[in-house]
User: Fold these one by one.
Assistant:
Number 1:
Amino acid sequence: MTAAAAPRKAPKINRIGLDLEPYRGLKTTLCAGCGHNSISERIVECFFEMGIDPTQVIKLSGIGCSSKSPAYFLGMSHGFNSVHGRMPSVGTGAVLANKDLLALGVTGDGDTASIGIGQYVHLMRRNLPIVYIIEDNGCYGLTKGQFSATADLGSTLKTGIANDLPPIDTCSLAIQLGATYVARSFSGDKKQLQAVFKGAMGHRGTSVIDVISPCVTFNDHHGSTRSYQYVRDNRTDLQTIGFVPHFDEIHVENGFAPGSVREIEMHDGSKLRLEKLEEDYDPGDRLRAIERVETAAEKGQVLTGVFYVNTEKPNFIDLLNLDDTPIARLPQSRLRPESAALDEVMEELA
Amino acid sequence: MATVDVFAPGEALAPTSREVVNDFSIQVATVNGSGSQSANLILLRALFQMGIPVSGKNLFPSNIAGLPTWYTIRAGKHGFVGRKKEIDFLVAMNPETAREDVINLDPGAAVLYDEPLNLKALRSDVHFYAAPFDKLVAPLAPPKFRKLVRNIIYDGVLAYLLGIELEEVRKALFKQFASKLKAAEMNWAAAQAGFSWAQENLEKADPFRLERMNENQGKIIIEGNAAAALGAVFGGVGVISWYPITPSSSLAEAAQDYLKRFRIDKQSGKATFAVIQAEDELASIGMAIGAGWAGARAMTTTAGPGISLMSEFVGLAHFAEIPVVLIDVQRMGPSTGLPTRTSQGDLLSSATLSHGDTMHPLLIPANPQECFEFAARSFDIAERLQAPIFVMLDLDLGMNYWMSEKFEYPAWEMDRGKVLSAEDIEALQGDWGRYRDVDGDGIPYRTLPGVGHPQAAYFTRGTGHNAEAGYSEREDDWTENLDRLKKKMIAARKLLPKPVVRDNEKAKVGFIAAGTSDDAVSESRDQLARGWSLETAYCRVRGFPFSDLTGEFIARYERIYVVDQNRDGQLHMLLRRQFPEFHDRLSSICYYGGMPLDARTVTDAIVEREGL
């Protein structure tokens, strides 16, 4: 890279010696003001700040506005824009082939909760190591604003038509079925989103982050429960979330009242600091978590925060007891058994 | 089918002096779930051990227990062991079907039946033997085992009637019950009891007899599914994702067993493979594609309904150029169809699976050896072409036991295809394009995720893209890409197994067939030559797109009959598509009844078409 002619402020460098540039992607083609663009920006910042080698990341998506966005971040990472609703299976195969990769799945509410619900629920059951971000705007943006399966009962389309079917709560489902890091956040909350993303990046299990991400073109009107205004008016935070990266012990964020903070150590050694806003909330309590999410829905609250974390449960790679060398990197000598093995089988069949 | 319209309860058919040695069919009619499978496999194996060419075909219902099932054994001293249309020796153990089974026999056939069925009254032109199975089994086994042990008795009776060496029955039986010595002993006593009873009470009257040959030296008996599973294991498969479906489930399960045995590191105890039972076929193909993309040798196993579900994903793998292997064990469709009946009904849909312009290479094995070899090779071909590859078995091949030569160890170097390393990219100074046709063969270069070079990444997509994998809706990018993909299929022809060609200078007529039609066509050629003096040539295709050798074969003969095991002549259609210049020469013979194809069906069709 050649230095610019004019004297400029030296670019900020992260712990692996990279500046922000390698973490960026192509220019977005989504609408101006789309929540998804904010999420892409957070992804760029988080991977940069955590000093993660982008060549060791894979970006996976299905089909829809959200699923286009992996082109707009982490340009040095291999990306796979697959088929509608079926990114979980592609991600599963890729992670099985190379368990050392950090898998980042980006999907939407249609991609996950409608066409993709079958693959979604089974991904949760397997607890595959993957960061699974749902960019949730309650509608199909790319086909001009039809309802998705996460649209709230009574929420209206631009045409005024009200949704008369109950929504699927992706977080509640995820907790119930075995995901081990489940959070909901808002594309407009930079600080919370960063902390939630970074926590997920340090987790070696299925992390589901449902990010309410308003569609400015088709679902940001009065009557929609996914508009910026509605989220601002109805948002309830479960906790205030802080994050201490594993390589930066000194940088502890203060300001929390003693005893009110629950600290969770993630698999990479980073710490998630959850300041309790609700007295007895324990993110390790699965049943309580489901109850709290469901209660919020009943009350019309947009509840955000880290709902559930379990760093003890074995992930899918653990269960399969895979070799230390990723399958994709095994040489022929380890993939093809010796001829004596074939002789043995032939003898048995003679 | 023989028709018998006079049910004269008559005299027993007189003993015949005619002898039919080592070339006839035995059919055992029982009830599904009654343990008859063991008795039948012992019979099959005993004949195999006597050195007689033999095959065993299980005609079973889509049901776990209680419905009729038939097991057919074909002994063929000339090496023809395809299904024989006529049943020569019937073992009637199922009251539900016994009457019809007997009525359908040709005159001169023989029947061993369970005494209370009283079948003798049905006809007078077949040889009957009645055995009191219930009486015989009573002293041999406690009540709860009687249903299972009862069937072994017919092995003993048949051994006497047909001349099967009892010692070979014993060996086969102890191999069958290898892990259960107590069961083996109880069953061995039953086989002996059957033999002794027959010796004392039956008088041989039918012409069918077995005697030792020496044709099976060094051979094995195996199902095609197990053979393909072994092929995948020795082909270096890394990830198998599958969803249970008849008739392919046993393939994935056999692969898992062999992988556990041979691909767990002895020191660390860790696996160099992953086998995933997915939630459905949409997921199983998705996982295989994800794994292939990330650099593992990946495959899925399925049958017709699964192929239909996988359609969209296979189009993506074709278009985004991702290596993946699909093993399709074909059953009878459309729809749920006949899940336990065989067919070659997925040839056309697999070759062109998914919307838009697609074409996928097929490998079509006809025997266990080819199942093994093609499964192993399929990964090389998939990685070389960066494309989905189909290995087309069928139920007959996959689930039935076949005699086979021992498999040859795949000593070749695996072909991992055009994959750029970090050093390669460095040497290119990052100047590479995922979909550039650098070598002129249409096959581009790829990088694997995690290779670690800053310029290695590309964006894989099912949307329009240019040579650099960038999104593009440009007309020229699109057509150039589609043309290049077509070019890859020309490269494919050279990688696929060549046809097996049997030229015949005296012939004007040729056969083209694929897969399990082989046995029937080979035997039919023999029948035509002997019975009608019709000389024929034969080309068995083993891959699609077809080799140029197939086109040259067609050019050499005036009339070509293309044999298909489906209604519409799918192989015929694919041939006409690739060789339109021979449109008029190719005519179609189709069998689609769901049974393994038999020679007589083919012969009858030729006799009619040729006006013989």
Number 2:
Amino acid sequence: MSHHIVAARQLSFSYPDGTPALKEVSFCIHHGESVAVIGANGAGKSTLLLHLNGYLAPAAGQVQIGEAAVTRHNLDEVRRTVGMVFQNPDDQLFMPTVYDDVAFGPLNLGRAPDEVERSVRTALASVGAAHLADKPPYRLSGGEKKRVAIATVLAMDPAILVMDEPTAGLDPFSRRELIGLLQAFNHTRIITSHDLDMVAEVCQRVIVLHEGGVRADGPLREIFADAQLLHDCRLEPPLSMQSCVNCGTPATGGNHLKQNDYVCASAEAT
Amino acid sequence: MHMADALISPPVGAAMWAVSAATIAYSSAKIRKGLDDHVTPLMGVLGAFLFAAQMINFSIPATGSSGHLGGGLLLAILLGPHAAFLTLASVLVVQALFFADGGILALGCNIFNIGFIPAFIVYPLVYKQLIGTAQNSTRQKTAIILSAMIALQLGPLCVVLETCLSGISALPFSTFLLFMQPIHLAIGIVEGIITLAIVSFVRKARPEILLDALAARPVDPHPVKKLVLAFLAAAIITGGLVSWFASENPDGLEWAIAKVTGQEALQGATGIHTALATLQEKSALLPDYSIKAKTAAAPTDPYGRWGTTASGLLGVLLTLSGITLSGIALRKTAALSRKPLPSGEYGSGR
Amino acid sequence: MIDNSIMDFRQLDLLAGGDSVIHRLDPRTKVLVTLAFIIAVVSFDRYALGALLPFVLFPVATMAIANLPVGFFAAKVMLVSLVAVAIGIFNPLLDSQVLVRIGNVGISAGWVSFGSIILRSALTITAALLLTATTGFSAICQALGRLGMPEVFVRQLQFMYRYLFVLTEEAQRMARARELRSFGKGGQGIRALSSMVGHLLLRTWERAERIHIAMRCRGFNGRMAASCSTGFGLVDLLFLLGWITLFTLLRLYDLPRLIGDTIMTLTL
């Protein structure tokens, strides 16, 4: 799996009751890219993510990780390559202590004890949670839980990180810490979120899902500049890219933009 | 209702521990063999659910008191007997350790009364028989409410039996029975109504949960019957053995020690030992009465009427002050050898 | 009510995070000593009262060494003892033969056995709570596992304990929301409860499904890999043997009586 590409080809899926969730979704993500999948509630984001590590099997089409398509036979390899961080860390942290939890994946992969120990320590250190190792998960704060949840995945050395709503429910400071963390990774990152300001800071590319299908796929700045598209998909541009509230001067937008920069210079001067 | 350690004797406690431990081992083996790995998180989270649900009180109509969900039958319907039993047992373990509901020795009794009865007696022998294969709603209502009522009659019946067999409480069997059963008849009806309401709710919202439960876990009545008989036998044998020790040798522990150390070591008596033993025998404030105390103050009392009581009270006072002082001393020494804690972190709970 | 029990629960869990000689012992040691203590206490006959008193030493010493708040345990014991009181109170009514006389006041056997029940209750309850407060639930589960409890059940206990905090909080929020809109009477009945519990059950079920996904995503295939923990040392051996010897001696010899008699013999 040299290039770590993630590709979906004509992916379709329906829930057992017949509701279609994904309709012919196709995209290709290359090594090191940081891609946001955005869309309204029920647009199919979470369903799509569950296909990326083979938890759900598509009704039609296929998912390709690296050179191989995801099948029942390479699930272990796929799940090791694609690390999945769930929206609610309480669902992901189920062991008695943080250490046990981070060790869960490596132990299941059958690694040697000293190697497990090493990967747990490294993973915890890389999210700044080394001091939490002996704590039980229910004693962590929201931000700590989120970082530990990421560590549980990092401990398996994935090449691709998939995250569902990483900043949901975090206080501004924890959110800021997490954004710093996400920017520092050089894994391929696939993130779904309604926090479009975070997306604007972390991702370069955006895929817009609408009613189960890909409505747009392109560079972040282009997508966020298309107000009509966003409106049609029940979204709106991030605050950092909206026009000045005082005089309507359009914001310049983009990754370099500072937060809350939506009052333009001319308005401030008056 | 939970059995309490204070009301239970070692033979009864041991017998019920034996049954409950055997059932835990049996159910664990069953679950382990099952291929379905989704039950692991499901059982765990449903245990927490039951625990949380029991914290929500409701007012019982026309009584002014409040009750809570028992949940034994509900879990059996949702998970099947083995998983339900383990889940109920785990809830009882937490209640014993954190809330001292019941207690550690009484845990065996409680796991049997609250877990084994709904999961392995009422569910297969009453509920499954009543509900049959039909998806008829009247039949289902009857099955659930009757099963809940039967479970809540058998449970208290066991509480009464266990208490009376232990002989710590002086309540006669019939009085206790007349006191417990009618109350639990009412509680059983309420439990049945709540269970029915929850099952109907689940049927509407997620019908596949109940269908899965029906399809995946068919219960063959024969092994269950065998199981029940086997465990009854285990209980009778263990209880019988332990009480035989207890009755043959008024002091079971003494007897066991004599066995282990060799009779001579205990009875063959150095001077001091005999002296102490006779001293103890002569002065026993509360001799070993079988069921009812026959005599008042011992007529052989060497110190007269006041003597026995006085020496008893004196001994009690001295013992208690000794313990208090050693407690204070231990706390001081422990505090000296410890780094100071941030204040408030381990402060009093009230 | 619900808030109080959660507070107590968290308090015990916090206490278990403390550091003392007792906290550092192998969990198996503490489980075994607690069991020995309880068996010794309940094995006394129903009229034993004085002979039970020396057993108070064990909880007192544990609380002292482990630096535990005495008031907290006293309050909990009183609350939980109510069951024992409710059943035990019949003893004085039913068993009225005079057993002991202090001067001209006769004390009936029923009152003595009632006192015995209360004392047993206090001792056994304290022992259980102290085990939890010095060991922590997860460690107790591991200890039971290493003492032979099936792995499936150990896992069940740990899993449940993990989600107790999440779900009791959820139930607490629901109960609060109900209370704020029920104004003392309406909405407290069986109908509201069934609906609340039904919703809680469905959410719990969905949570279990999400957890299962998260487990599968990290290579779970039905078996849980175990991690190792502390070993049994010399201190553990001494602690175990010391207490068990003491319990045995106290069970065989009525200490307060021996002390009283010795003093009486010396002074008379």
